[in-house]
Each structure stands twice: as C-alpha cells, then as structure tokens.
Amino acid sequence: MSDSTTGTAGPIKVLFVCLGNICRSPTAEAVFSKQVQDAGLADRLLTDSAGTGDWHLGHAPDQRARAAAATRGYALDHLRARQVSAEDFLHFDYILAMDNANLEDLRALDPGHGRARLMRFLDVLEEGGPGEVPDPYYGGEDGFGAVLDLVERASQRWLERLRSEL
Ligand code: 4NP
Prior knowledge:
Blueprint: E1 12-18, H1 24-38, E2 45-51, H2 63-71, H3 88-91, E3 94-97, H4 100-109, E4 117-120, H5 142-163
Parallel strand pairs: 1-2, 1-3, 3-4
The structure holds 4-nitrophenyl phosphate (4NP).
C-alpha cells in the first residue's frame, strides 16, 4: 500500500493473539514493540494484541507475566485485554497466533477478504522449532520465563523480516 502524499509505504500493523490476552500475546506485544522502538522504527511498525476468548476483557496482564517481563525491562502494566474480531483481519497486515488452537480459532473468524496474513508467531523460527508458545496460565512461575525466551527470539526474527518489507 502507498501513501498518496509521500509515495512511501505505510506502516506495517502486527496483531499478536493468544487465548486470554493476559499472558503470551501482551508479552509478545511488549517485547516486540520495545525492539521496534530500540530500532527507531516505532512509527513504521505498529503493534497490538488480543485474545480469542472473552474471559479477561479489560483486565491488565497476569501479575506473573508482568513480574517476569519487568525483570527483563519490559512494561506490560498499561495493556488491557480485548477479544480479537473479524474486523482485525481488515486492519492488520499480520495476525500472529501463539499456538495451534489460536490459529484454528482465527481461521474460523477470518472473513476471507481481509488484508491480514495469518501465521503462527513461532513460524519465523528455524524449521523443526517449537511451533507453539506454551500456555503458562496454569503452570508455575518458570513458564513465564520460558515464554519470554521464545518471545524474545521470535520477535528479533520478526523485526528482521518486517524491516525488509518496509
Ligand atoms: P494467555 O493465557 O492465552 O497466554 O493469555 C491464558 C490466560 C487465561 C486463560 C487461559 C490462558 N484462562 O483460561 O482464563
């Protein structure tokens, strides 16, 4: 897409999606947007996150996710959960699912005439990689560190990939 006034391509919009939008996808949103900011691309790569479920609408991210992220310098406190909608397929360029169940739910929601490319967030990692970000909600504290490890690695790859599309 072109901007008719400047002739430059518009920003790329990325939506991260998990089940509750209180653990994995807000973590991905915060990590990726910090990397984008550090790269000086905050006005070129726009981010958001949402959940396929509606249990936590309007809630801040899980306290455990906030605490784990804070130890690595990421702030999640300002984020609030929302549910993904069919309209998101018209607005975002990429919709990135945290696991296979999220991907299936998103496929069912896809109106089919949107602009969004629907993929798993970890598809950008090496072949034979983990594929899914494990749901840490019912597990222990260490699950949140494992989520951060995966998210930091995949976000770096996404930044490299999307920067080349700008
Ligand atoms: P998330 O984790 O999908 O990474 O935000 C979950 C949060 C809440 C629930 C499940 C997973 N829940 O069942 O309420």
